[in-house]
């Protein structure tokens, strides 16, 4: 536990130094020293939940190398004890670390990420509005998709669903404006399911829809701002409306996959760093391999997120891919080391 704690503090210190140099160029241009300090502190929960598997891997590797250097692994083997005597305490610590990571990711980072995005968008990037580009709005059982055409004019798609999430109507408008709690639509095509004809379409030149939801009242929620329950229900709503759920599904499965990865990292550390001798070459190779695989684990996770967001691979598969790959590699190397 102490090795993992020291590793976490070291990684956070390195991050703070790098991030300070990166954000210092914005000082005096909307970013104040107080805001920069707040930004660095609010980023800590995100870093903890993001890097906890890597922290556990490095901490466990350092601990196992110390055991090997002091010939304690030889004593365990000579006493006729199995490797489980070394793994169980490490797995217990990994379980505590994964639980802590889940709690931080579930109840802390959704709050801190909202404030981080405000500082990033308003004070650093100096964006006038967070809602730029395609925007999704929700009004009861209606979903509005707005694509900006020109100032205050949008191309609009409206999806209406029933109380059980079933699709009832789709409205496509070539042009839409909002004023006085009303949407004014032009060049409208209305599509409704029909038991006899499959789908019935109706065209209208203009149409008015009453709604309290306008282009500035809401924006597409970000997965990093939502906890597990919110993600689950939002994904269900999107699926019932026939919409893509890529980034939300990835975030939901990531909340489960990341804590499990902490347990698998212990097995990988044992496969790399558990030696019966004190040869420095083997120990050096083990810690270098652990650091390299930890960095690779993080890179594969980020690559999976990008691929899932672009719908190039299934989002659930992308979330579990790093854990499956590195967990399988750790189990294979450990079983091979034990002669199985």
TrEMBL record:
| Bilayer-spanning residue ranges | 44-65, 86-108, 256-274, 286-304, 316-335
State any GO BP term from the record.
lipopolysaccharide transport
Q: Does the keyword Cell membrane apply?
A: yes
Q: Where in the cell is it found?
A: Cell membrane
GO cellular-component term (any): ATP-binding cassette (ABC) transporter complex
| Keywords assigned by UniProt, alphabetized | Cell membrane, Membrane, Transmembrane, Transmembrane helix
Cross-referenced Pfam families: LptF_LptG
Membrane topology field:
Multi-pass membrane protein
Task: Kindly give the NCBIfam families that the UniProt entry links to this protein.
Answer: LptG_lptG (TIGR04408)
Q: Check the record and name the PANTHER family matching this protein.
A: LIPOPOLYSACCHARIDE EXPORT SYSTEM PERMEASE PROTEIN LPTG, SLR0882 PROTEIN-RELATED
Give the protein's recorded name. Answer: LPS export ABC transporter permease LptG
Species of origin: Mariprofundus ferrinatatus
């Amino acid at each position: 536990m102490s090795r993992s704690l020291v590793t976490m503090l070291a990684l956070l210190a390195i991050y703070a130094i790098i991030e300070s140099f990166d954000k210092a160029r914005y000082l005096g241009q909307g970013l104040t020293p107080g805001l920069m300090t707040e930004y660095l502190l609010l980023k800590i929960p995100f870093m903890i939940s993001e890097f906890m598997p890597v922290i556990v891997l490095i901490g466990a590797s350092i601990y196992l190398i110390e055991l090997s250097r002091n010939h304690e692994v030889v004593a365990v083997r000579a006493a006729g004890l199995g490797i489980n005597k070394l793994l169980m305490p490490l797995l217990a610590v990994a379980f505590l670390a994964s639980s802590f990571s889940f709690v931080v990711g579930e109840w802390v980072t959704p709050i801190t990420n909202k404030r981080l995005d405000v500082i990033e968008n308003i004070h650093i990037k100096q964006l006038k509005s967070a809602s730029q580009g395609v925007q999704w709005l929700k009004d009861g059982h209606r979903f509005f998709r707005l694509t900006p055409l020109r100032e205050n004019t949008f191309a609009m798609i409206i999806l209406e669903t029933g109380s059980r999430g079933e699709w009832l109507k789709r409205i496509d408008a070539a042009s839409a404006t909002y004023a006085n709690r009303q949407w004014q639509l032009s060049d409208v095509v209305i599509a409704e399911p029909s038991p006899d004809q499959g789908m019935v379409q109706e065209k209208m030149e203009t149409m008015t829809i009453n709604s309290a939801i306008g282009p500035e009242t809401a924006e597409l929620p970000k997965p990093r701002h939502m906890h597990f329950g919110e993600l689950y229900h939002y994904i269900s709503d999107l699926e019932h409306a026939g919409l893509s759920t890529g980034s939300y599904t990835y975030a939901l499965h990531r909340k489960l996959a990341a804590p499990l990865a902490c347990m698998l990292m212990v097995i990988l550390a044992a496969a790399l760093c558990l030696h019966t001798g004190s040869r420095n070459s083997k120990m050096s190779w083990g810690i270098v391999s652990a650091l390299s695989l930890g960095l690779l684990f993080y890179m594969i996770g980020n690559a999976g997120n990008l691929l899932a967001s672009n719908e190039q691979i299934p989002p659930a598969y992308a979330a579990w891919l790093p854990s499956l790959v590195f967990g399988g590699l750790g189990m294979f190397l450990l079983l091979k080391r034990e002669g199985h």
